Amino acid sequence: MRVKTEEKRKCILEAAKAVFLERGFLGASMAEVSARAGGSKQTLYSYFASKDDLFVATMLEKGAQIIDPVFSTFESEDDLRPALSRFGRVFLAFVSSEEVLAFRRMIIAEGARSNLGKLFFENGPRRGWTRMTARFEWFMEQGQMRRVDPWQAAMHFQALCESGPFYRLLEGVLPELTPEMVDAAVDAAVDVFMRAYGLETAAT
């Protein structure tokens, strides 16, 4: 009986990340991933039931390293505006990184013909944004936000952060987002969000 280990799982995910980035989702194969990870396809399938599952796990591993701690920090913040500003900067820098952009483009390309996008969203982003909605409810109770649907507010904040230069980057119009561009985009996003959802009693 084979014993699953976290070390082997991480080895598989590293191999999978390299294969997906080199081949794209359609061009990647479980056989190549297992070969690079130094094991058999049988071992690979004992960890991940399908290529879709492996792809999603690879993306979530990346997010767990960077974004999960940022959501945790946001949950401990007491002042809405600086909390959004700090979160937005890390979030936008993360989603505009070369690797994450490549994976997101794969998800968009596959979304219309597979369950990949839904599988990823339900197991990753939805969980993170749900954590933000819980903190938004706390900010509402503290009188820093208007009483609104917290999920809608979280989705609006994501959209505001990703508006403008990020979409030009996603489309390939821009080669990268500089730190200055990230700062400007997040400052604008926070300002619009606070005008829409913030209360005058909120700290500035």
TrEMBL record:
GO terms for molecular function: DNA-binding transcription factor activity; transcription cis-regulatory region binding. Residues 6-66 form the HTH tetR-type domain. The keyword DNA-binding applies. InterPro entries: Homeodomain-like_sf, HTH-type_TetR-like_transc_reg, HTH_TetR, Tet_transcr_reg_TetR-rel_C_sf, TetR_C_Proteobacteria. Keywords: DNA-binding, Transcription, Transcription regulation. Gene3D superfamilies: Homeodomain-like (1.10.10.60), Tetracycline Repressor, domain 2 (1.10.357.10). It comes from the Bacteria. The keyword RNA-binding does not apply. Residues 29-48 bind DNA. This is TetR family transcriptional regulator. The lineage of its organism: Bacteria, Pseudomonadati, Pseudomonadota, Alphaproteobacteria, Caulobacterales.
